[in-house]
Amino acid sequence: MDSTWYAVDAPVIKRISPLNSLKFKADYKWSPGEKYRLTIDSAAIYDIYGLANDSIVHEFTVKKLDEYSSLSFNITGLDGRPAVVEVLDGSDKVVASAPVNGTIGKVEYLSPGTYYARLFIDSDSNGVYTTGLLDSIQPEEVYYYPKKVNLKKNWGVEQSWNIYELPIDMQKPLEIKKNKPKRKRGEEVPGNDEDEEEDEFFDDPFMNAANRNQLGNTNFDDRRRR
Fold it and tell me: Biased composition, Polar residues: where in the chain (predicted)?
């Protein structure tokens, strides 16, 4: 059966973080299971040196809802303070994040895999982690969930998390520590008795396509079978 591309409204391009001018996301109500094609004209994007991009055509398919997982934490110890939960991959990099609503921090649309989590107290309520200033401002408090979490397709995981259950210097899982302590021969790594799931992390298809400072004309197509 033939397929036909047709134009849809272009997504809204936003910075992922106000502190990073090189990474953007495409904010759009994607239809699960549909295939899209993004077209960016040549000279639509300029970097800080005035160099323009070549034309870009990028095709991708949005996953079906039953291919995703979700991760929810019931958090104690916040005492009403605003906070943000961040889901991390095995390199301690942020995969996704969500603000805590009351005592619940829920992150949706995660691909199956092994994850870790941390939380920061969002003292200035700006949604991003704020570092401190030597003379006046302390950095926002950070807490790690002490265990890894395995996610499966079409499955939601709920965990209880007391941010004060362990001392701060003992919270971060060994697997994502950059400087790991040496272990004696035959000693097992804590937390390695859980089943591993496929290691496939969510990858925003526009995370790299919009890696410039200025955005010009973009066109979107959606292909549906008729």
Answer: 210-219
